[in-house]
Design goal:
This protein is of the alpha+beta class. The chain has helices at residues 2-17, 29-43, 48-61, 65-70, 73-80, 87-102, 111-114, 122-133, 142-152, 162-168, 178-191, 210-214, 314-325, and strands spanning 227-235, 237-238, 241-246, 257-258, 261-264, 274-278, 281-289, 299-303. Helix 1 (2-17) packs across helix 11 and helix 8 (122-133) packs across helix 11 (178-191). It starts with a helix and ends with a helix. It binds iron/sulfur cluster.
Length: 326
């Protein structure tokens, strides 16, 4: 009973307060499914506000699953440039190809088939089923997880584990408006139950919120520590130009243009020049200039003063910036 009341209150709040995001526009059923697929991939590692212009440009250039399946690698990467985590773009294209080949060009409407698509895991499948197909799923993203933890005051180690949270989300109840409801819960987390300073006075579920009662909004995170990794990055420089290669070796930035690099395992006295956070890595990078005549497959020279005219991942651009300054 309590769940039903919560559901109603949250939906009512959403109807009055939702943001007019481009993937929420009223469009045909087919387009809605396509928009959900694209936006969910983009939102996997990126905030809403950043995604909006990329989403608009992407669907303008690639308005359907068909066009996405046939897009050239070059155009795809160009459209994704700036969003990072390029494997998402490649998986999107592969998914579109599988959808054309195995599913008659239609995004699958069930969990078992969705999960077979490249880049679609448990969470994204839940989000697509709820948002695009109005099925009674609640995807547990960071926003919904925060609302859940605060609403139920979940703090203990066992209470903040994923499996436990997945069981507890039942507290949000069910509705026939599953699509709106999944988005409403995400929106509630994004706009009201914010990580810092939640705006409880405007929250539709304040009455039964345990954190509000205790006036304790702190959150315990299940911290995943980034792995320390060590790389020696080789700089070959002639006049203003740097030698870059197509990355066939490392799983990160696969097939994109990087400097030649070697990974070292647990080196002693490693004097890093640079540090990057990428995926689940803490990358420690030592730069070495070299002028040996080593030949690299898939290599080419780029002008360090004209970086913006090349299609490069921001990782490589940042290294060039560093080299130009030092
Ligand atoms: S009352 Fe405050 S803490 Fe509780 S769910 Fe709402 S915004 Fe979050």
């Amino acid at each position: 009973m309590k769940e039903k009341i919560i559901t109603k209150k949250i939906l009512k709040w959403y109807d009055l307060n939702k943001r007019p995001l481009p993937w929420r526009k009223k469009v045909s059923v087919e387009k809605k499914q396509y928009y959900t697929l694209i936006s969910e991939f983009m939102l996997q590692q990126t905030q809403v506000i950043t995604v909006i212009p990329f989403f608009n440009r992407f669907i303008k250039n690639l308005p359907s699953i068909n066009s996405l399946a046939k897009v050239s690698e070059k155009k795809l990467i160009k459209l994704w440039e700036g969003l990072g985590y390029y494997s998402r773009a490649r998986n999107l294209k592969k998914s579109a190809q599988v959808i054309l080949k195995n599913f008659d060009g239609k995004l699958p409407d069930n969990f078992e088939d969705l999960i077979t698509l490249p880049g679609i895991g448990n969470y994204t499948a839940n989000a697509i089923l709820a948002i695009a197909f109005n099925k009674p799923y609640i995807p547990l993203d960071g926003n919904i997880e925060r609302v859940l933890k605060r609403y139920l005051y979940l703090k203990k180690d066992k209470e903040i584990q994923k499996d436990y949270l997945l069981q507890k989300k039942i507290v949000f109840g069910k509705t026939l408006r599953s699509s709106d409801y999944a988005q409403a819960l995400m929106e509630l987390g994004a706009l009201i139950c914010k990580p810092n300073n939640p705006i409880c006075a405007q929250c539709p579920i304040i009455k039964n919120c345990k954190s509000y009662k205790k006036k304790d909004f702190s959150l315990i995170k299940n911290i995943k520590k980034n792995k320390d990794k060590y790389f020696v990055l080789k700089v070959y420089k002639k006049n203003q130009r740097y030698l870059l290669i197509k990355n066939k070796k490392f799983n990160f930035l696969k097939n994109l243009t990087i400097f030649p690099m070697e990974e070292l395992s647990n080196p002693k006295n490693f004097n890093k020049n640079l540090n990057f956070k990428m995926s689940n890595m803490n990358m420690n990078i030592k730069i070495e200039y070299s002028n040996d005549n080593k030949k690299f497959p898939y290599s080419y020279w780029v002008d360090g003063t004209k970086m913006n005219s090349y299609m490069l991942p921001s990782f490589t651009k940042k290294i060039v910036q560093y080299l130009e300054k030092n």
